[in-house]
From TrEMBL:
It comes from Nocardia terrae. Pfam families: DUF72 (PF01904). The lineage of its organism: Bacteria, Bacillati, Actinomycetota, Actinomycetes, Mycobacteriales. InterPro entries: DUF72, UPF0759_sf. This is DUF72 domain-containing protein.
Length: 277
């Protein structure tokens, strides 16, 4: 029984007293969390040697959920992308089993299920795929929901919910919250898993108590998934993400309070200077 938790990044200015060398940042993060969102690949395909470094810094059981480049999902909208996909898959190949899923984040205007079905059908069979949709029709229209689920289930793909309901509850209380609300989608919470490997993105608030209170439905859902034999991955976001690493561990601890047999997270590597007191 194993739960994976992580953040939207593996480095943040607030996470170390002094910045770590690039070759140590992911290694340090991986002592706090056992999964990470690969958001940087949305903007550019990384060099293969960079990905080799990521592999060296993590254990084989660490999970990367790697976002496809925007040229594939947003610019070309999953069509005419054979060369781009080949280059991307070659670049991330050094991750090996660490690559948990290819993350297909679709633009809010995307509704073409035949295009999505064709894309998923064309992927090499050994890649696990997870899709994040943002168009409201998939959340508000039961027929559209069922059609999307049918496409995903036929391909063995998961639906990634991005739960921002807590973020949009009440007025923004800081510039960071206002900026997050301007950029993030606002769709109903979805908790149905389609595969053995559900993936959730949860967005909280600046206020820790509000963030923790808001994730309680996900605690219940995650416990149920684990009891069913699923292997979920939960990513914790906050407006500035300064506390997300600690919050991810807290989420894991709350689930483990309910399921004591759950495998614990590793002990974090200390990075702050030692003191006498």
């Amino acid at each position: 029984m194993r739960l994976y938790v992580g953040c939207a990044m593996w480095q943040h200015p607030n996470w170390q007293e002094k910045p770590l060398p690039p070759a140590e940042r992911l290694h340090n993060y991986a002592s706090w969390c056992n999964a990470v969102e690969g958001n940087t690949t949305f903007y550019a395909t990384p060099h293969r040697r960079t990905v080799e470094s990521w592999s060296r810094q993590t254990d084989p059981d660490f999970r990367f959920v790697m976002k496809l480049p925007r040229t594939i999902t947003h610019d070309r909208r999953l069509t005419g992308i054979d060369d781009e996909m080949t280059n991307f898959l070659d670049a991330i190949e050094p991750l090996g089993r660490r690559l948990h899923a290819l993350w297909v984040q679709l633009p809010a205007s995307f509704v073409s299920l035949p295009t999505l079905a064709s894309f998923l059908d064309g992927l090499p069979a050994h890649y696990r795929c997870a899709v994040e949709v943002r168009h409201p029709v998939f959340f508000e229209n039961p027929r559209a929901t069922a059609q999307l689920e049918s496409v995903l289930e036929a391909a063995g793909a998961e639906w990634i919910p991005f739960d921002t309901t807590v973020l949009f509850t009440g007025p923004a209380t800081s510039p960071a919250e206002a900026e997050a609300r301007a950029k993030k989608p606002h769709n109903p919470r979805r908790t149905r898993a389609l595969t053995e490997f559900p993936i959730v993105r949860y967005h909280g608030r600046d206020d820790v108590a509000a963030t923790v209170a808001g994730w309680q439905p996900w605690i219940d859902t995650t416990v149920a998934w684990l009891r069913e034999g699923r292997s979920p991955t939960i990513f914790i976001h906050t407006p500035d993400n300064a506390g997300s690493r600690t919050l991810a561990r807290r989420f894991h601890a709350e689930v483990r309070d309910r399921l004591p047999d759950l495998e614990p997270l590793p002990d974090p590597i200390p990075t702050d200077p030692m003191t006498l007191f």
